[in-house]
UniProtKB/TrEMBL annotation:
Organism: Natrialba hulunbeirensis JCM 10989
Lineage of source species: Archaea, Methanobacteriati, Methanobacteriota, Stenosarchaea group, Halobacteria
Protein name (Swiss-Prot/TrEMBL): CopG family transcriptional regulator
Keywords noted in UniProt: Coiled coil
Coiled coil: 33-60
Domain of life: Archaea
Length: 74
C-alpha cells in the first residue's frame, strides 16, 4: 500500500475533525468511484465504436458482454 497526500485549508481540516470524518475512507471511496466512472465511460465509447463498425443489428448487451470478456482475459 502507498500513501498519498493532499493539502487542504485549515478550516476544512477543523470541519473534518468536528464531524469525525474518516478522511482516508472518504478519499478511497472517491477514488474508487472515479475509477468506476472512467471505466464505464471508456466502455461506453468502446461500445459506440464497435456499434459503428458492426452495424448489423447486434444488440448493445452482446457487445458489452464481448468487451467485458476480452478485458477479463487480459
Amino acid at each position: 500500500m502507498i500513501t498519498v497526500s493532499a493539502k487542504i485549508p485549515d478550516d476544512m481540516k477543523e470541519k473534518l475533525e468536528r464531524e469525525d470524518i474518516n478522511v482516508s475512507e472518504v478519499i478511497r471511496n472517491a477514488l474508487e468511484e472515479e475509477i468506476t466512472k472512467r471505466r464505464r465511460e471508456k466502455l461506453r465509447r468502446d461500445v459506440n465504436s464497435l456499434r459503428e463498425k458492426v452495424d448489423d443489428g447486434v444488440e448493445t448487451d452482446e457487445i458489452v458482454g464481448a468487451v467485458r470478456e476480452t478485458r477479463q482475459e487480459n
